[in-house]
């Protein structure tokens, strides 16, 4: 546990290397793509419904969007925003689950997701404002007349400017409200240790889980899925959810380890918490793959143009390789790496996996957002790492300040004792542990 | 068992609470016994560590089973739908891992769980028709409210009187019985 700084250096090196590779070769690959596929033809093939509806993007948007343009900035910004929103919404989900299941083990790490989720207000709300300001750059449906486009006409009850501008800020505010309520209930319990605060949090979770599921789906429909408003997928919400919670588990794992290793959680967070956070991260590795495979498989199997165009565009040019990166990097690599139980307690393994998970979730967000801007293939600009690191930096810096402004764990939660004392058995002396035979395995 | 001079299977100590038997298990572990086991009406969290039980090897059986299942599914579907008797469904390719995945995935689980079950039975030398402990009348409480710890006579550190004294005085057993083989 004391080797964090060294391992962290490894993580940053890995991230930097991946960044250099992706970013540095982008112009080369873009040029290659350009030569290989004339853009006009590419567009017509990539979006049959868009073409059918008479709004083929290829005829309007220039093939390459200038780096210094509002459009490029808006798309890079949205990708980074969706990544940060994942961490906050994932943390909110962790809190809801903690209270719904009346969990004991996670009490000692609970303040990490509490503080992280509370970044939904004001930070994530303020960071939303540029998206609202740049809405015309991002969402094409805002600028076309529903009467000329059947695909939009049938969805105009939701997809119109008024509802968008009221509902999206409202959703973010409602998440902020829930997160701050969890946090303030928990902080109130620090003062008197009364069980009523736990009960209130449970009541909040009970209705909150319904609102969370509904609002998260609506939120990512508006912010991300509506970039291609013709698309249909009822799994899109749970797909964003699965990736979000996945990246949140590993983030909380790393934060818990850092706070345990050199600080305030030393006395209350033990191997058990670290292991279980890792186990749940592993579970969501599988869950995400299950969800994303299901979405792809059902669309592939049904083969209806109003659904397939979304994936057809993402199999075009270098996007195909981004898709394979998600298949192998988002699932197979972490799955196989985490299959052995002991790995979840080894920082030397888990910290690089954490860096990798962050990168993969960002790739996943890019895969969702960016093909709309550059159909020919992946085209990273300096905006992407800048906004990604910048926004996560703001988020984590704000989190760190907020975390240290109040007690590091729920001081007087009635279940804290359960979390701290449960399952802690003194380890066997070296000689004895090696001598236990096969017969004792009958206990499993 | 041939090492011991009498015909006893071992010593069975009984305890009243999970905490007592946990404490006793830690003491037996640290005393270096190798052939011993505990019996409780329900799983006691942390008992593995208290007994010093090493990580179970069953996972390897599961992995081998799952791996076999996955490739059985893929190979079977490729052979049947593409190689042996090409079958066009919905204008899709004759074979792609995509549509073969759900079935392969199910076979991964099926073979994995079979391998887990049979691996578990194999490692535990099960099934068997009788066990000396079942002849002890008091032992029936192990499925109700009794907590038992048994040190077998085959343990290299076993010595009838010394071990009995150890169980009573060090582990605070409520009762220690000799189990006939």
Describe this structure in a few short sentences.
The complex is a heterodimer of chains A (444) and B (181). Chain A is mainly α. Chain A has helices at residues 4-24, 26-36, 39-46, 48-52, 57-60, 70-100, 111-117, 123-133, 135-138, 150-153, 161-192, 196-223, 236-261, 271-302, 305-313, 319-338, 347-369, 383-405, 416-421, 430-434.
Could you explain how this protein is built, in words?
The complex is a heterodimer of chains A (444) and B (181). Chain A has 444 residues and is an all-alpha fold. Chain A has one domain (4-15, 71-421). Helices cover 70% and strands 0% of the residues of chain A. Chain A has 20 helices and no strands. The longest helix of chain A has 32 residues, at 161-192. Mean pLDDT of chain A is 86; it is low at 27-60 and 431-444. Chain B is an alpha+beta fold and 181 residues long. Chain B folds into two domains: 8-54 and 142-180, Alpha-Beta Plaits, CATH 3.30.70; 58-123, no CATH class. Helices cover 46% and strands 13% of the residues of chain B. Chain B has helices at 18-31, 47-51, 58-84, 97-123, 160-170, and strands spanning 8-15, 36-39, 147-152, 175-180. A four-stranded antiparallel sheet of chain B has the order 2-3-1-4, covered by helices on one side. The mean pLDDT of chain B is 92. The interface between A and B is medium-sized, with 30 and 37 residues.
Radius of gyration of chain B: 25 Å
Sequence of secondary-structure elements of chain A: HHHHHHHHHHHHHHHHHHHH
- Helix count of chain B? 5
| Strand residue percentage of chain A | under 5%
Instruction: Round the mean pLDDT of chain A to the nearest integer and report it.
Output: 86
As for the CATH topology of the largest domain in chain B, it is Alpha-Beta Plaits
Q: Using DSSP, what is the number of strands of chain A?
A: 0
User: What separation lies between the terminal Cα atoms of chain A?
Assistant: 29 Å
Helix tally of chain A equals 20
> Unreliable stretches of chain A, pLDDT < 50, 5 or more residues?
27-60, 431-444
């Amino acid at each position: 546990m004391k080797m964090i700084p060294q391992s962290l250096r490894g993580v940053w090196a890995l991230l930097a290397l991946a960044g250099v590779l992706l970013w540095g070769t982008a112009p080369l690959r873009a040029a290659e793509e350009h030569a290989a596929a004339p853009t006009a033809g590419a567009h017509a093939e990539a979006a049959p419904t868009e073409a059918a509806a008479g709004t083929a993007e290829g005829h309007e948007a220039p093939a390459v969007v200038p780096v210094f343009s509002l459009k490029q900035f808006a798309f890079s910004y949205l990708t980074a925003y969706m990544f940060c929103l994942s961490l906050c919404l994932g943390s909110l989900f962790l809190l809801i689950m903690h209270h719904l299941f009346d969990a004991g083990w996670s009490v000692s790490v609970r303040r990490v997701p509490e503080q992280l989720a509370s970044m939904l207000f004001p930070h994530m709300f303020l960071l939303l404002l540029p998206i609202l300001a740049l809405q015309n750059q991002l969402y094409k449906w805002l600028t076309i007349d529903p009467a000329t486009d059947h695909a939009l006409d049938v969805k105009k009850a939701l997809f119109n400017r008024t509802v968008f501008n009221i509902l999206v800020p409202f959703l973010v505010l409602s998440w902020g409200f829930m997160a701050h309520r969890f946090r303030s209930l928990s902080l109130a319990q620090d003062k008197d240790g009364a069980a009523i605060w736990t009960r209130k949090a449970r009541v909040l979770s009970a209705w909150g889980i319904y609102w969370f599921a509904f609002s998260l789906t609506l939120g990512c429909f508006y912010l991300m899925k509506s970039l291609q408003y013709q698309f249909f997928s009822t799994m899109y919400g749970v797909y964003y959810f699965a990736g979000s919670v996945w990246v949140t588990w590993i983030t909380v794992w790393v934060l818990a380890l850092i706070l345990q290793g050199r600080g305030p959680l030393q006395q209350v967070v033990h191997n058990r918490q670290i292991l279980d956070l890792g186990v749940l991260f592993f579970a969501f590795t599988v869950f995400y793959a299950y969800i994303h495979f299901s979405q792809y498989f059902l669309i592939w199997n049904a083969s209806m143009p109003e659904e397939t165009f979304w994936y057809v565009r993402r199999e075009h040019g270098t996007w195909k390789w981004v898709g394979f990166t998600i298949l192998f990097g988002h699932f197979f690599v972490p799955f196989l790496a985490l299959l052995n139980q002991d790995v979840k307690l080894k920082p030397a393994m888990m910290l690089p996996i954490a860096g990798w998970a962050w990168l993969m979730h960002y790739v996943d967000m890019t895969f969702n957002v960016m093909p709309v801007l550059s159909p020919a293939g992946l085209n990273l600009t300096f905006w992407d790492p800048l906004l990604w690191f910048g926004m996560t930096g703001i988020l984590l810096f704000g989190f760190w300040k907020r975390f240290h402004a109040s007690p590091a764990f729920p001081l007087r939660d009635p279940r804290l004792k359960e979390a701290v004392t449960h399952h802690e058995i003194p380890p066997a002396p070296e000689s004895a542990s090696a001598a236990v035979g096969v017969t004792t395995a009958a206990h499993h | 068992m041939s090492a011991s001079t009498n015909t006893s299977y071992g010593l069975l100590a009984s305890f009243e609470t999970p905490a007592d038997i946990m404490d006793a298990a830690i003491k037996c572990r640290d005393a270096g016994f190798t052939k011993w086991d505990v019996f409780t009406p329900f799983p006691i969290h942390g008992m593995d560590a208290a007994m010093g039980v090493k990580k179970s090897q069953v996972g390897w059986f599961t992995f081998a089973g799952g791996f076999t299942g996955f490739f059985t599914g893929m190979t079977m579907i490729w052979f049947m739908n593409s190689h042996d008797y090409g079958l066009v469904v919905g204008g899709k390719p004759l074979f792609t891992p995509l549509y073969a995945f759900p079935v392969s995935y199910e076979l991964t689980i099926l073979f994995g769980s079979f391998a887990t079950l049979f691996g578990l039975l194999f490692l535990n030398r099960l099934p068997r028709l009788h066990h000396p402990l079942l002849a002890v009348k008091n032992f029936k409480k192990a499925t109700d409210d009794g907590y038992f710890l048994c040190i077998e006579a085959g343990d290299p550190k076993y010595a009838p009187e010394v071990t009995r004294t150890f169980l009573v005085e060090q582990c605070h057993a409520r009762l220690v019985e000799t189990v006939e083989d």
